[in-house]
Amino acid sequence: MYRLLNAGLDHIVFTVILVALIVKYVLFESQGQLEENLIHDSLQRSQDVLENSGHFGKGIGPLGILRQRSRTRTVSFNSCREESAMAACKEDRGTQTEKDKVQGVLTEENNDADEDKPPRSLEECIAVINSEAGAKSLSNQEIVQMVEKKHLPSYKLESLLGNPLRAVGIRRTVVAPHTANQGSMDSLPYDHYDYTKVMGVCCENVIGYVPIPVGVAGPLLMNGKMYMVPMATTEGCLVASTNRGCRAMVNGVKSEVFRDGMTRAPSVRLPTAAQATEVYMWTRKKENFAVIKEGFDSTSRFARLQDLQVGIAGRLLFMRFVAQTGDAMGMNMVSKGTEAGLKALKKHFPELEVLSVSGNYCVDKKPSAINWIEGRGKSVVCESVVPGKVVTSILKTSVAAIVEASVTKNLVGSSLAGSIGGNNAHAANIIAAMFIACGQDPAQVVGSSNCMTLMEAWGEKGDDLHISVTMPSLEVGTVGGGTGLAPQSACLTMLGVKGAHKDNPGENACQLAKIVAATVLAGELSLMSALAAGHLVKSHLAHNRVKGGSSSLSSSTMPTTISSDTSGTSGITTTTPAPDGISSTKFCDVQPSGKASVGEVNSTNTCKPPAAVGDAKINAMQGDTVVSDKDSTSNIVLSPCQDPANISVPHSRDR
After folding, report:
1. Calpha distance 219→518 (Å, rounded)
2. Using one digit for the tens of pLDDT, what is the confidence trace for 482-508?
3. CATH number assigned to the domain with residue range 65-197, chosen from the 4 options 1.10.3270.10, 3.50.50.60, 3.30.1330.40, 3.30.365.10
4. Which of 5, 325, 332, 520 has its CA 20 to 30 A from that of 547?
5. What is the pTM of this model?
6. Where is the stretch described as Disordered (predicted)?
């Protein structure tokens, strides 16, 4: 009886499982298969329509692409469980982000029923636009038609449709036929982006966005606090080099803002040069300056006029207004205040004629001596002392070598070139990377990169290194412009300077300027060390070349580099002594041609180079090496374009 009961229970359990599987298949699996078939049929019908249309080339029109992507996105939120549906999701996605739920994503209205209908006539569409329904009730194809017929302005699509993402998609459809290549925008993402932050602030006629890699350098010890610095760049070695500089400054960095004032300089004209001189003398009196300041300060809670620098040229005056602007970079704020100040001035000199609110005496986004001397934005000085042991162990050079290289390059070389504000190694590199990451105006790299880098031996015996950078015109802000975009805002948050300072307006912007200067200091230290040790070319060959491609220059035509290691090195054998504390490395190179020849190492541990460098005298940074082809065993014949005698080795693109 007990055995029969157990057998009955087994049959009952088996029956229940079988019934559950049948129910699951009938109610779920078949529905999923049906959904997949519907998706496949829908995409196939769209493909057939596209193939039958040859208007845009290759049978795929921009409007069809937009419609197909719209449907694909609808699928991606509902039925990406199966492998086939997942493939459909990934095929035409408009973003390079894997997440489906991104903060600030705007969903596109998708009326497939309307899109399948033939577009209405031009007169009907115009009537709809003028009705209460408005342009948003038109189908995408009808809106494209209206834009092409000049009845709807392309730049107003966001406001007319009330859906920025839909507007961007339609604009891409309109623009695509006019580009050099129909598929040129396929790899330009536009989905998963909050365009409400862009409208009216950052960009017009938007068709997408360009993702840029963001690296981090640090930790950077500045004024007793650690920072991880975001840098957006496509230049290999830049972040790694700056990170090395941060690591070398073990004693930390002192960074201070010693001047703060954004400028705007309108050009005005008087009837005669004598009257222009009268106005010039009038503005120099304190009581008269107070009149202009009262008008200027009335335009903002934060803008405060500090100085008025006037230049005269005949009957022209260039009036440089200098003002603090809180945590904003302040160009718009100062421009508004300048107009009010000029109105106050015209009450005393009605004959004064304003020619331009900006007369290039500011100076904005152009190299200038006045910014270098008088400053613009934040003026910052930054310093650090690097122990001699660190110079040897981390930077792989000596204090004497790096000081000599700095004086020769940053002072003598820049002076010989007639450079204004260019007494540095590559300040613009770090500033550009940080500006892009933190939402600053990239064009203001021009003035912001004004920098003087100084290095000198330090300590009782001169074993340590003192390095400083002085940057008189850092134009930065933590509110306004690109700082409101989510990724750039995140980078400012990393540094603890997002937005306006609650208690002390302007403190966040000044702090950002200090961090930028400190990061420039790290970049200057690392690059000058690489130059002093002869590592620059080697590092760029290793990190800043197209992977998998062939270089236009063979390694045998590149200048000699000194290396502290033997990993991944390309170059020519040298017996030049390395700086103190660094072992000299000897290496041979492989001739990158069809029939490669490897140099042989002889008993003296020196290299017999390939014949491609025969009779080439190479001046290394710290010695001379003469290479002869007498000992070479290679019989390689080079074409004229490969002959080192006919090749001019290019300068590094950023040094």
Report:
1. 12
2. 999 999 999 999 999 999 999 999 999
3. 1.10.3270.10
4. 520
5. 0.70
6. 88-119, 547-578, 631-655
